[in-house]
Amino acid sequence: MILSIESSCDDSAVALTQISTCKVILHKKISQESEHSLYGGVVPELASRLHAVALPLLLEYCKPYLKEIKAVAVTSSPGLAVTLIEGVVMAKAVSIALDVPLISVNHLIGHIYSLFIQKQAIFPLTVLLVSGGHTQVIEAKGLDEMKVVATTMDDSFGESFDKVAKMMGLGYPGGPKIEALAKKGNRKRYGFTVPLYQSPKIAFSYSGLKNAVRLAVLDADKKDYADIAASFEYTAVAHLTQKLKKYFKSNPPVNFAIVGGASANAYLRSEIQKLLTPFNATLLLTEIEYCSDNAAMIGRVAVEMYDNRMFTDMDELTVNSKSGLCSIAQS
Ligand code: KG4
Ligand code: ZN
């Protein structure tokens, strides 16, 4: 089996995946949400120190399986450099101790493969990746053929939920909190402008919407917060669907997937489903358990990489906080 390690942001996670069947044998995670909640976002140095404590604890669960581990996979990019390094150092130590190869995994490809945990991979695929750090549309033809075709010019979709939650004093992560509050609100009360609505560009932007919400919050009572949350969620999703609709005009979808932490959002899922219906396209979704950061998705990519002997030398395995998918420019 493959031992996989994930520490790109605020979740310490390990998993064991059986190579021949892709079965997840063990999957453990320690989240740091409560520690970062105080600050309304992730504090990198604090996250790094918490990983240093959590990762060895998680490794304890793997002890009964050590003899069966054939490779160690670890997220090496993108993410916070100070947290990625914690996972990479542990991966190197285990690789030396067990004398097994290292597999260096891109976190975003991990999110895409979260669709295929304990399943066969399906390609080609158009993917909407919505997380705390990214908002991208990706054309994925296979493990080594992925192209970013649209990205955000500033904040990401998930991050905008975190910032709006922070403005309302709801804590971190904001996505689930805003989603719950929005259910009680009126989506149409605040007519926030849909970002880049008139622009022919197929790109995303959340900073203007975030500022519009900030002004609304400043001017509101707490009793208005549910309506603000609902109107914000409505506009944030409308921005994604409007741009996707434009994109689909010249690239009709066949298999379409939503991945990343924010793909757990039920309103987003239902609006995308509506958008796909006229195309008869299939919507692929990750199980809720594996939407947010986890090591099982890293293990799933690693099985594919193991089969293709895609190993990385100890000396060459370094962290890269920025590297996105392949070499595509992120305008
Ligand atoms: O993929 P992920 O776990 O971490 C990164 O790679 O960034 O995504 C975390 C992000 C956070 O910004 C969180 O607020 C957002 O996903 N999120 C949501 C929901 N659940 C998590 N955003 C909107 N609605 C949700 N239900
Ligand atoms: Zn992620």
How would you describe what is shown here?
This protein is of the alpha/beta class and 331 residues long. It folds into two domains: 156 residues, Nucleotidyltransferase, domain 5; 161 residues, ATPase, nucleotide binding domain (Nucleotidyltransferase, domain 5), CATH 3.30.420.40. Helices cover 39% and strands 19% of the residues. It contains ten helices and ten strands. Strands 3-2-1-4-5 form a five-stranded mixed beta sheet, sandwiched between helices. Strands 8-7-6-9-10 form a five-stranded mixed beta sheet, sandwiched between helices. Helix 3 links the parallel strand 4 and strand 5. The radius of gyration is 20 Å and the shape is globular. Zinc ion binds next to helix 4.
Oligomerization status of the protein chains: single chain
Strand content: 15-25%
Domain count? 2
* Unreliable runs: 324-331
Q: What is the level-2 CATH architecture name of the largest domain? A: 2-Layer Sandwich
Largest beta sheet, briefly?
5 strands, mixed
**CATH homologous superfamily designation of the largest domain:** ATPase, nucleotide binding domain
Question: Which molecules are bound besides the chains?
Answer: 5'-O-[(R)-(carboxyoxy)(hydroxy)phosphoryl]adenosine, zinc ion
Helical proportion? 25-40%
What is the straight-line distance between the termini? 39 Å
Q: Order of SSEs, N→C?
A: EEEHHEHEHEEEHHHHEHEH
Strand order of the largest sheet: 3-2-1-4-5
Write down the overall geometry: globular
Radius of gyration of CA atoms, rounded to a whole number? 20 Å
Mean pLDDT: 95
